[in-house]
Specification:
globular; 8 helices; single chain; Rossmann fold; alpha/beta
């Protein structure tokens, strides 16, 4: 069994979806968990579930797009738990579904600020603590959209592609200081979020919803969508000592939709 006893993990956007499942997986493995997001109530619910497992959890209201909030996130974690061993850069938004000629600069910038700059700011905020410890794991949650062109989702795809480059760069910058950096690219993941994506895409393309959904699923070798729990299992492996030789890597969790 994977053991994260005495480890402290920060998970951004950890109140629901993939972030919540990762938080619960880490808690079951013995980690203390700090959730950071803009919406408080989902985080409180996740904290309550973690505490029912017998683990410790706390939450902080923070936007990863704000430098001061990322500093607050680190300060609150150190105050509550005394160290930081893991950062999961999971916070992100889907952004608009439209061609760039129909998109405003504000729509583009919001996605870049949260999905990419947020990961950079959060990583920059935790690295000094990890550096002092000479150990740490940073995990980026990118997307299958970071592996290929994604029409109608330009800012989302651009941010998710860039997260892979950020992963490789930070891994090389900080590897000699004991810090590992890896990335997961989830594909279409069962749940409410992907249903909203399918509906927005169907509306933009003026196609039936079921046609858009079936097109996504038919691309996967396993002919199904992955689950949030399946992403969480990979996230657990990548921050544990069993993956001690793995850094700078990007792993797809997409049922074989993208073979690279």
């Amino acid at each position: 069994m994977i053991d994260l006893k005495d480890r402290v993990a920060i998970i951004t956007g950890g109140g629901y979806g993939i972030g919540k499942k990762i938080a619960l997986a880490y808690a079951r493995a013995g980690a203390k968990v700090m959730l950071a997001a803009r919406t408080v109530e989902p985080m409180k619910e996740t904290c309550a579930e973690i505490e029912k497992l017998g683990a410790k959890a706390a939450c902080v209201c923070a936007s990863v797009a704000l430098e001061a909030d990322c500093r607050k996130m680190v300060d609150e974690t150190l105050k509550a738990f005394g160290r930081i061993d893991i950062l999961v850069n999971n916070a992100g938004i889907a952004g608009p579904t439209k061609r760039i000629t129909e998109m405003s600069l504000a729509e583009w910038q919001e996605v870049i600020d949260i999905d990419l700059t947020g990961a950079w700011l959060a990583s920059r905020a935790v690295i000094p603590t990890m550096d002092a410890q000479r150990s740490g794991n940073i995990l980026m949650i990118s997307s299958g959209a970071g592996r290929r062109g994604y029409p109608l989702r330009a800012p989302y795809a651009a941010a998710k592609w860039a997260m892979i480059g950020l992963t490789q760069t930070l891994a090389r910058e900080w590897g000699t200081r004991g810090i590992r950096v890896n990335c997961i690219c989830p594909g279409a993941i069962e749940g409410d979020r992907i249903e909203r994506v399918f509906r927005a895409r169907a509306e933009a393309l003026k196609q039936p919803y079921e046609l858009v959904k079936s097109a996504f699923i038919s691309e996967s070798a396993l002919n199904r969508m992955a689950t949030e729990e399946e992403v969480a299992r990979v996230a657990l492996f990548l921050v544990n000592d069993t993956s001690a030789a793995v850094s700078g890597q990007t792993i797809n969790v997409d049922c074989g939709a993208i073979m690279n």
